[in-house]
């Protein structure tokens, strides 16, 4: 059959975890729990940052935006996975696949860039504390965040247009549990050089630039910490960076593995596990990491609980 006569499929079959459909009730329950915990945990961080004056600093401004991105990233893929597991039919419509790819690439890119900005924020706070407020001004923070969204939106548009401009004629089965660039390229029969070149062209901005920012920032931070004479100051500096560093190792490592590598090394089982780390493990761990390891967030949570308890007591006993 002539390739040019073939049309795009109306829907795609998602093959990842298809051999586990006998566990679909258990897996769907697990996904519902993790999705609920992710949304509630990250929403709590956003609420605390915007309601507590002590948390309205550049560090927590970026943290709240990271939580918003975690919610958005999780919402892009997990609800569709839950629906597929409950229905027993792992499919996604063509247009929905296109939308999912756009927003997934958008949120992944935004989160990676944001982690780079957060590393720079920690560098300024520890290595140049006297000028921290002046350097990390509200205006600069807003500009950085706007730049992140602008760059990520442009990057996502490029990859979505290039990917879906290809002729997807090698069936409609995707070896993944959501629509991503690599599995879609695997079922295309046209020239994928434009898409792969786009990945290579955007990688320095979307991947290597924030990665280098993180590495250089932490080299300077570690150097500064080792020169500190006060053990208390050293512990405080380590405490402010520990949560971010753990998130960076978990999230950036899996993202670099997924995107900054040759498409020939694509593997269903290995990449599906990495994708689960990106979509499920990282977003659900972020609230735990930042609440359990961060003194300011724990104090803010305690203050909110005390205020609510006091308000409840006032309403309950005030009428007597």
From TrEMBL:
It is a multi-pass membrane protein. It holds the Pfam family 7tm_4. GO terms for cellular component: plasma membrane. PROSITE patterns: G_PROTEIN_RECEP_F1_1 (PS00237), G_PROTEIN_RECEP_F1_2 (PS50262). GO terms for molecular function: G protein-coupled receptor activity; olfactory receptor activity. The keyword Membrane applies. This is Olfactory receptor. The lineage of its organism: Eukaryota, Metazoa, Chordata, Craniata, Vertebrata.
